[in-house]
Amino acid sequence: MARCNILIVDEFVRTDKEIIQRVFVPFLTSIRTPTYMDLSPKERSELPEEANKQLYLSSIRGADEWSYQYFLEYIKNMEQDNMSYMTVALPYQLGVKNRYISRDIVEQSFKDNPESRDILCAEYLCLPERNNNNAFYKYRELEKRRENVRAMVCMSDEEYITYKDNKTKFPYWQEKLPNEIRLLCMDIALVESKANDNTAFWIMRLIPDSGGYKRILSYAESCHGQNSLIQAKRLKQLFYEFDCDYAVVDGQGVGQGVLDICTTETYDEGRDVTYPAWTAMNYDEVKSNRVISPNAVPVVYSVSTSAKDKSRMLVHSRDIIDTNKISFLVDSQDAMDYLNKTYQFYKIEDQDLRRRILNPYVQTTAFVNEAVNLERVVVSGYISAKEKSGRRKDRVMSLVYGLDYAKSLEDALVQPQQLDWLSYIMSY
Known about the structure:
The structure is a single chain. This protein is an alpha/beta fold. It has 16 helices and 14 strands. It has helices at residues 17-24, 41-45, 66-79, 92-97, 103-112, 117-125, 139-144, 157-163, 228-241, 254-262, 285-288, 307-322, 336-343, 351-372, 394-411, 421-426, and strands spanning 6-10, 53-57, 146-148, 181-187, 199-209, 212-223, 246-250, 266-268, 273-275, 278-280, 297-303, 326-329, 374-379, 382-387. It has an 8-stranded mixed β-sheet, sandwiched between helices. The protein has a two-stranded parallel ribbon with strand order 1-2. The longest helix has 22 residues, at 351-372. The protein starts with 5 loop residues before the first strand and ends with a helix. 30% of the residues are buried.
C-alpha cells in the first residue's frame, strides 16, 4: 500500500476535514528509510530522528470554518514554543514586492467592488470572513448548501437566434425534468447613484422531492443603474430563454414601473422576437386596471410585503437553508473540474462566453457575502435583516421572495410526488 513521508494538501479549505483525517493522514504511518539507514546501529543512533510532515496551503475562507480553526490550533502550538508547528500568511504585499501582481490591480479591485470588501480582504489580506454574533444568516450553514456544480448559462443574442427553435442543442442547455417548476425571481433597483442598490435575478428550479420540492439555485445575475425598459426586457429574455413557469417580482416602489412595462408586448430587437404582455396572478381589482393588453399572460407573482410578511419570509428563508431544502452553486474554483471535464473550459477563447459561464458561480459567492453581513434587527416588533453601511441585500431579497412563492406552491401539493431529486443529481 502506498505511503508518504510528507503530506501536502493544496487548497485544503476545499477538502472535507474527514477525508484528510481518515484518508490522507494515515499515509504517514511509515518512517522514511533512506540509504543511511544501512549504517550500523551505533552510527544510526547518533543521527537525529526525522519525523513525517504535513503541509496545508490555501487561500482563506470563513472564520468559523474548520480550516481556520485548524490554523488557529497551529498558532497556539507555536505560542507554546512547539517547534513542530509553523504557520505563515502571505498577503498581497508579497506579490506586489515580487511583481506577481500589480498594486494598481489590487486597489482597483477594492474600488470597483465596495460591496465585496470581505471577499477581497480574504483574497488579498488573508483576513477571514467573519459572522458577527447578530448575523441573520450563518456562513457555515450557507457554505454547507453550496453543492450544485451545474450552473445554467445564458445565451448571447446571436446564440439565441441560432438555437431558439431547438434550445436543447445549445451546448450549455440544462434539461427541464418531469414535473419541474422554474421560478424567475427579481428584486428591482433603478437608481444608478445609490451604491447599495442592485437589481438581482435568480432562477430557482423546484424539483419534486418526497412530497415537497428541493430548491436548486442554478442561475444568478445582477445589474446596476439600468432603466425600467431595459430591466423589463431582460426579465422577459431570461423567462423565455430558460423556460420558466412563473416570475416572482418585487412589485413595490420602483418595481411597479417595471411591471407596468411588462403588461404590454415587448419587442426584443437583438433577438428579433416579441414577448407577450404579462399580468400578475395576484393583482387585486385596483391594480388589474393597470394591465393594458386583454391577452396578458398571468405568469407574474407580484410581491408587496408588510413588515409582518417580510419578517415571516426572512425567517422561512433561514429555515429552508438550515433544513437542507436548498442547493446553491459551488465556488467558481470548486466548479473548475466539472467545467473542464464537461465543456473543456480551459480551451474556450471567447472571453464573453467564459464570463457568462462563470458569472452564476461568482454571483452566488457575492450572495453569500451579502447574506452573512446582514444583521438581525427588530422593527416595530417584527424581525428584519439590515445591511451594513455601503452593503447590499438585493440578492438576498430576490431569493427570499422566490422561496416564499415556492412555499405556496409546495403547500398546494395534494398528492406526494415521485422522488425526482435523485434523477437530477445523477443526470450529469
